[in-house]
Amino acid sequence: MTALIPIVSDESDDDHVAEPPAEDPAPADSRPGRRHLIAPIASFSIGAIAVTVLFAIGAWQRRWIADDGLIVLRTVRNLLAGNGPVFNAGERVEANTSTAWTYLIWFWSWVTGAEHTEYVALWVALVLSVAALPLAMYGTARLYGRRVLGPGITLLLPLGSIIYIVIPPARDFATSGLENGMVIFWIAALWCQFLAWGRRDPGDRSARSRAAFLALTFTAGIAPLIRPEITILGALVLLVLFVSRIGWRMRVAMVVVAGAVPVGYQIFRMGYYAVLVPNPAIAKDASGSKWQQGFAYLDNLFSPYTLLLPVIVAVVIGVVLAVGSYLTRRDRRTESGASTATHDVIDADPHSFSSRARRAWSTMVDRVQSQNAVVATVVVAGLILGLYWLRQGGDFMHGRVLLAPLFILLLPVMVIPVTVPATLSTRRSRYQLVAGLLLLGGFITTVWWGVAVNQTVLPNAGMDIGRDGIVDERRFYVTNMGNENPVTAEDYLEYPRMRAMVEKIHETEAEGGGVILPSANFDEWYVAPLPKHLAPGIPRETTVYFLNLGMTSMNAPLNVRVVDQMGLAYPLAAHTPRLTDGRIGHDKHLPTEWVVAESGSVSGFPAFIDRDDVKMAKVALTCPMTQARFASYKGTWSFARFRHNLREAAEFNSYRIAREPKYEIQRCGLQMPPGLSEG
């Protein structure tokens, strides 16, 4: 991911040192100052309203709920039904990556009493997505400090916000039922709070200042609950806050406030689910790297929309603004004759290494609470997050996981100040004129680019997944269902196999249960029936085994167990090794024989089921560690179980079984079952 150059405000580190203030030709409380505010406020308001309205319209036109969004709603249904935060009743499995998103949708579904939770997810996502843009723009507008009060006319024009809303995936995932909208809203809120802290006087110890500081630490602290990898941004913000000059009492308070909710939930997760991370994180485990696939994913986002052009524009504008801000600070220091002295460090030997190190540390700490440090922290976090996803290989959904790092990197240029100086008599004013023309040119170029590419559709988007495994998820489902705005689970009945699945569930339930398996025929499902007498400890239930977990689970009753080959909701599949050359996001695949064996089925299998593999899978499932893992999430939950899970969570989290039953038998040191076919 290309970095955007940090923009430094006129109110930089130097505003925090003890020096006479530079004479301001237009103080904020004077009439000229208020007059100078008219242009920036008016231009910002027009730009923010225009960007927000256009984004809202675009997001609404592309409204939908993704299959993965329906996965979240299955958990919400179970919460509302009193089964707990689970995907299948009786199995404590955390099938959703974003904890905060799950409980946010549950809360609003409970408050509204909505019959269709799909509409709750759609509206909550849409509101948060749309609100994130003006909030981020407001934070960036404050970054420029006194620049808008100087002589001349300054316009605050949207730039990064335009780049973001033009990209079709940004509008696709503004709804979708996934947490993207909440993620960018959280980023925007953290950006505003972090910048406000950077502008604040480090010596301010008022109750209001302390409350604002602790509110910021709380927002940063809940990052792991927003999404696990977004912790990168939250952790860097907390690190900067911790090393600033706040005193040890505030550091203790900061640790408590930032850690209370995420640490409390982590303890609950370990005791309840018996793992350290959500089950999808195990299913898509981060072992190994897929850089080549990651760069293919980056190209899949950049190439169709010529995204490199506005990114280069943003970088150039960042450099121009950074240079202009540096010149402004230098001129102010020259005019005031002030030094940039920081807190004195007294030492008997000022030339010793330890003395120099203490002075360097003191200087660094003095500069931490500044807008320069805030912008640098955010940009570094965006780069690290982007590199993380490149290493992971990206995702199978076009553009989705790069939206958050892109949004973070665009924060410093969400809006840009274009200044027309009142005079050209000074070097700084002449630079302002040249810079203003460059910024205006960048703005016009970005608008032109946006008009040209905003409706671009990927080639064969609705029909072809492609060799790289990446798909325009929304367009794929829209095309395959003939519905421009699929929102409800009922809409997904038009997807191949779904109506036939609903009918097969009713038939199988009436016949005493079994495992429902997909066939190559889109209108037919196979069933591995359950025997009349099941082995002790095996419940009589109907199980659907299918990859498209969301549409399947939301069109199935809550008493029907729904699991998948990849392991999002099925720990047995999640604990298999990652396939080296598997499709990204789908690189685990548990053979069907495992779920047939686990269900208790013994005969009447579909022809494609290998009976020897079923026999071997039954033996492999008796591995003591596997049985312990089953008990951790299927056994009756009690305080004793909670304590046991808490102790074993780390081991369960890293536990892996062999994908093939015969190799799992060897791994666990078990005996092969008798009666296998020869060869």
From TrEMBL:
Domain Terminal beta-(1->2)-arabinofuranosyltransferase C-terminal, first and last residues per copy: 524-647
NCBIfam families: flag_mot_ctl_ZomB
Protein origin, superkingdom: Bacteria
Region named Disordered: 9-33
TM helices/strands, residue ranges: 37-60, 120-141, 148-167, 173-197, 209-226, 232-248, 255-275, 307-327, 373-390, 402-424, 431-451
Name of this chain's protein: Terminal beta-(1->2)-arabinofuranosyltransferase C-terminal domain-containing protein
Keywords: Membrane, Transmembrane, Transmembrane helix
Keyword Membrane: yes
Annotated InterPro entries: AftB-like, AftB_C
Keyword Transferase among record annotations: no
